[in-house]
């Protein structure tokens, strides 16, 4: 196509369309045959009505990437994009409409799937997800319930998502998570876990996550209400390097067992899981980063041998903690201590450790103290989420 100067205009044959605030007035004149990527950051309903009209009628058979803030009825046209490799929709109104067999099952080349549903409800991922064998990353918000495979398909060795590397955010129940064995190469998992009563063992049980042998990064939230939480044993894959636990009831023995069962653990995050923690020597010999949020955490007993490889210590919202164990001053590789909105004794102990490290000629230690005045005057309470 020639522009007003008689020159062939490549801008009318774009491979990428990015929409920020409004529809470009020239968009209706460009050739959609050349488009491979469409990304929109706009939140205007009027804009998305125009975009969906183009997606429904335009000849974009070679579209590879579709990243939208919101789509109302993607099931009516998404089946047309059989070459799609990346699909992200950050606001979907109806999960049952999106996961139509006739539309979703044709995305054979899909590798990355990111879906966020507009209402805070749990949606079910149908069995057809297992037919999209090229999937590498699945990210579902706020959370998703994977339909349990029937016993016949569960035993079928050909039913696998063997390319899947990361999965977020399935809801896992004890006795209903055997499908995890169908993800042999899964490396990163973020999930919500629920206990169920095991009548044969006569106790509550969490799902067994050691079915994922290749898992190196795991983030788990306890899905039970706070007043309904039970202390249960966690079954974790031994190759983990990063572990984040939120809302679990853990005593010292539980945490020690976690450390001993995970010989490669380098990063540990605990969010409102402990009240008292006595750490044995060599419980965490490879741990490099420790992050703890604990509103009710009071006592902490540890030596330099408990965390002999520790490089970073992050404490946040530990309102009741009586202090950091003084032997932390003897950890030679410690490089960072970050304290945020904790008790005054935690700030004082951090300063004492800093003095010990300086006396030992460890000048690389950095101590960050945030929110001390706000805590002491009770004028401010920070969110308990790590940023």
Describe the fold and architecture.
- Among the domains are: 1-119; 250-387.
- With 387 residues, it is α/β, with parallel strands linked by helices.
- Mean pLDDT is 82; it is low at 1-10 and 374-387.
- It is 15% helix and 26% strand.
- InterPro entries: LRR_dom_sf.
Shape designation: globular
Order of helices and strands: EEHEEHHEEEHEEEEEEHEEEEEEHEH
User: Number of helix segments?
Assistant: 7
The low-confidence runs, each spanning 5 or more residues with pLDDT under 50, are 1-10, 374-387
Helix content: 10-25%
Quote the distance from N terminus to C terminus.
49 Å
Number of strands: 20
Mean pLDDT: 82
Q: How big is the Rg?
A: 26 Å
Q: How much of the polypeptide forms β-strand, as a percent range?
A: 25-35%
Oligomeric status: single chain
Major β-sheet annotation: 16 strands, parallel
Structural class: alpha/beta
């Amino acid at each position: 196509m020639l522009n007003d100067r008689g020159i062939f205009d490549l801008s009318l044959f774009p491979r990428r369309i990015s929409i920020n605030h409004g529809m470009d007035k020239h968009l209706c004149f460009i050739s959609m045959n050349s488009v491979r990527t469409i990304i929109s950051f706009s939140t205007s309903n009027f804009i998305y009505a125009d975009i969906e009209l183009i997606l429904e009628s335009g000849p974009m058979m070679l579209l590879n990437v579709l990243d939208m803030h919101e789509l109302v009825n993607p099931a009516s046209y998404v089946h047309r994009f059989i070459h799609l490799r990346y699909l992200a929709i950050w606001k979907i109104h109806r999960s049952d409409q999106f996961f139509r067999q006739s539309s979703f099952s044709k995305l054979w080349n899909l590798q990355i799937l990111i879906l966020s549903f507009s209402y805070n409800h749990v949606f079910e991922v149908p069995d057809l997800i297992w037919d999209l064998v090229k999937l590498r990353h699945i990210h579902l918000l706020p959370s998703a319930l994977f339909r349990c495979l029937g016993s016949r398909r569960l035993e079928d060795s050909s039913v696998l998502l063997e390319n899947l590397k990361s999965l977020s955010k399935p809801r896992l129940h004890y006795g209903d998570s055997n499908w995890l064995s169908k993800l042999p190469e899964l490396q990163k998992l973020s999930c919500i876990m629920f206990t169920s009563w095991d009548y044969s063992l006569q106790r509550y049980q969490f799902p067994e996550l050691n079915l994922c042998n290749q898992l190196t990064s795991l983030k788990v939230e306890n899905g039970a209400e706070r007043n309904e939480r039970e202390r249960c044993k966690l079954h974790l894959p031994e190759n983990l390097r990063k572990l984040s636990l939120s809302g679990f009831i853990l005593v010292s023995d539980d945490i020690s067992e976690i450390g001993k069962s995970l010989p490669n653990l380098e990063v540990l995050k605990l969010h409102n899981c402990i009240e008292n923690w006595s750490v044995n020597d060599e419980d965490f010999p490879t741990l490099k980063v420790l992050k703890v949020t604990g509103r009710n955490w009071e006592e902490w007993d540890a030596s330099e041998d408990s965390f002999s490889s520790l490089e970073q210590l992050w404490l946040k919202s530990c309102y009741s903690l009586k202090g950091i164990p003084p032997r932390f001053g003897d950890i030679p590789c410690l490089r960072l201590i970050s304290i945020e909105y904790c008790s005054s004794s935690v700030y004082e102990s951090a300063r004492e450790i800093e003095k010990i490290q300086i006396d030992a000629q460890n000048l690389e230690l950095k101590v960050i103290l945030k929110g001390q005045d706000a805590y002491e005057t009770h004028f401010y309470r920070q969110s308990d989420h790590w940023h």
